[in-house]
Amino acid sequence: NKQFQPVSSVLIGKILLIVQISIGSLFIICAMLMAAQLFFMKNKEKGIDTNNVTQLYLGKSDWQLNQKGDILKQTLLASPYITEVTRTVEAVLSPSGIDYGNRIINIYFDKQQIRQNDPSRPEDYLFLADEDFFKFFRIRLKSGDFPSPGHPNEYMINETGEKLSGLPELANQKIYISAQNTSGRITGVIKDYHYT
User: Fold this and answer.
1) For 30-86, how does the pLDDT look when each residue is reduced to its tens digit (9 = 90+)?
2) Which of these, 19, 194, 176, 193, lies nearest to 185 by C-alpha position?
3) How do residues 6-25 score in pLDDT, each as one tens digit?
4) CA 27 from chain center: how many Å?
């Protein structure tokens, strides 16, 4: 017959104390990491200025960029409390980026590529905005120029899009849009920005 020695209550107390300190330390480390991440998100340069901006979402249609949009824009600018107004088709300040740039098109740099119909080719996302959009959100230009007012076939591309194109410079590059069977011109490359 083997006799079992009872475990000392002092030993159990020490083990429980070590476990409690370990769990408490883990919570403190997690809280510090979350605070550091929140500080980073609040203070990191996003490439877009969203301070003092109110967004009016008027539904998903192109009307914001036509004549009715001009009337609404001028009416808002008549208020002494509003200094700038821009119009887009998609919501910019979406909490999750849903519907942002959801107009899927294929942009080609060579008209002959349109006929090839390559299903493995990545899709391009188009975001429609008026000429004041870049100034309104203080979006920085990497190269080229911003689109000119009254030129609907002028486009901008961001740094990531330029890298993915494989071309060394896209400013003033002619483009072909297969879905609309139109051509246009990239006037400049903007720095990437984060909108959520």
Assistant:
1) 999 999 998 987 888 888 888 888 887 776 565 555 667 788 888 999 999 999 998
2) 176
3) 567 778 888 999 999 999 99
4) 32
Handedness of CA 92, 95, 96, 99 (dihedral sign): negative
H or E segment at 169?
A: none
DSSP at 168: S
Tell me if 40 sits within 8 A of 187, measured CB to CB.
Answer: no
Helix (H) or strand (E) holding 100: none
Which are the contacts of 179, defined by CB distance < 8 A and separation ≥ 6? Answer: 105, 106
The H or E element spanning position 60 is none
User: Which residue in 175, 108, 103, 186 sits closest to 147, CA to CA?
Assistant: 186
160 is written with which tokens?
């990531």
- Rounded to 5 degrees, what are φ and ψ at 60? -100, 90
Q: Is 59 strand, coil or helix?
A: coil
Q: What is the DSSP letter of 5?
A: P
Tokens of 55: 């967004």
